[in-house]
């Protein structure tokens, strides 16, 4: 009984968007195959940020969270290539090339950020908007184009789709029933 009361109190002050984001991320972290991210400092808050942004942009939050898991394991860092360049050159993140993938959704500022620069770019928002555009353009095949926009990657799509199914299986029934696999955003 006390656990239910604590859960109710935790949800009482949250907006509907925050509640949905919390449910999606709690489900994502409950998947046994995602055990590696439980040890990443700040991963849960990055997951919630991705889910909240997806909800506010009209994108399926489970889709965005599954992509963020595959792209960065919920780490808000440059890609492995970017980290290696930073170590070799002794530079900072902001001095990396805009062609290096950045953030939890690993977007390239050169292609997906305003002014084509990392400074002043919300990489989470840019990644969610990229997903939204791909779902609008390609529908159920959107995941094939996330990693390589001009080259279909069915293997990547299958891995992310599997992660989506794992997360949905852990969601409360009412939440899982309200979300389609890949739905086209309303424009």
Q: Please, could you describe this protein's structure?
A:
By secondary structure, the protein is mainly α. 57% of the residues lie in helices and 0% in strands. The chain is built from 9 helices and no strands. It has helices spanning 2-12, 16-30, 43-57, 61-72, 80-89, 109-112, 123-138, 154-170, 173-178. Helix 3 crosses helix 7.
Helices, strands, pairings?
Layout: H1 2-12, H2 16-30, H3 43-57, H4 61-72, H5 80-89, H6 109-112, H7 123-138, H8 154-170, H9 173-178
Helix pairs in contact: 2-3, 2-4, 2-8, 3-4, 3-7, 4-8
Keywords:
187 residues; mainly alpha; Lysozyme; 9 helices; disordered N terminus; disordered C terminus
Tell me the strand percentage band.
Answer: under 5%
Which parts are unreliable, with pLDDT below 50 for 5 consecutive residues or more?
1-7, 180-187
Give the CATH class: Mainly Alpha
Judging by the overall fold, what is the CATH architecture?
A: Orthogonal Bundle
Basic shape: globular
Could you write a compact summary of the structure shown?
This protein is an all-alpha fold. The protein has nine helices and no strands.
